[in-house]
Amino acid sequence: MVSRELVNGVYSVGAFDFDRRIFDELIPLPEGTSYNAYLIRGSEKTSLVETVDPSKEYDLISNLVKAGVECIDYIIINHAEQDHSGSLPMILEFYPDARVVTNAKCRDLLISLLHIPQDRFLVISDGETLSLGDRTLRFFLTPWTHWPETQVTFLVEDRILFSCDLFGFHAATSDLFITDEAWAYRSAKRYYAEIMMPFRGSIKGYVEKVRALSPVMIAPSHGPVNKNPQFILDAYADWVSDAVKNEVVIPYISMHGSTAKMVDHLTGALIARGITVKPFNLTRTDVGELALALVDAATLVIATPTVLFGPHPSVVSATYLANALRPKTRFATVIGSYGWGGKSVETITKMLDHVKVDLLPPVMVTGEPGESAMQDLDRLADEILKKHKEINIV
Ligand code: FEO
Question: How far, in Å, is the centroid of ligand 1 from the Cα of 106?
């Protein structure tokens, strides 16, 4: 790999991971990812912002050696998760005079996760600055831009924001900067859904805080660098807002075709009423796509057959995930079929305790859905349309 210059004296020195296909053993990575680290040369001090995933630590070391970096004074760690901090022990061995600059909560996590000695840290607080000579770093604590210890770092004179997980996206690309905003928008939205959506309430404030800094560049720790910060700030402002769209998301499983028949009928009934529908067969769904669909949808319809006495386990898993991601969905219900009874509706609706939704009447049928089940689904489509009209999205 190579180091590349963002502006004079500021370099990208991190690593690509073109082959990685899953993150946290949960999030699919169809385009791989990158672990970005940045080197900033000041007139008096040199700083590294982040390290890389431990699987790529030799790439980072190699980039620094090739760039002729003999001394690092400060290593800024904005987030303790190992994809950014995991090479810290090796870098600290390689650069024995370097201090790790971060906030107290992040320091505690780094000690716990990586056993970094306490005396290697320089602890900063919100708004504090650190001089590199002719360049200044300013730190802002941004808790819950993934974990509770997260922060961002602003290079004041160059107006570059090093935002770590925030505003980035998972993609390995040889382009240093975003060159295709339509592609970046979709990738960033998917990443927002998977990582940031549960913290929508906090992120609202951070978006405005970052706007006030008027950055000319946002350099995240995943994906290419953004030279048009307005683009991603406007996108985030929309995603974190309370506004929902005239859309219905239907995650479903069908074992013998009954639930699939209901989903097909409801999908058609909703389309006929001018509503966008996104059904996801959970046996084939990429959960990142399901998360992405949940960013804007006004209504969630969970469709399940009955296994023994409750919902299908794959539906339980998807419902758990949807609840954990805390989308701004306004309405929800359950449809499906059963053979001899069951508690699917109660089980699923109880699982949605983090999603503030109005529950619409469920449609559960015995065995093969007949004419009256289809009429119930038509009535559900009418009800969804009525609810969407009440909140002025139709
Ligand atoms: Fe990219 Fe939360 O780590």
Answer: 13
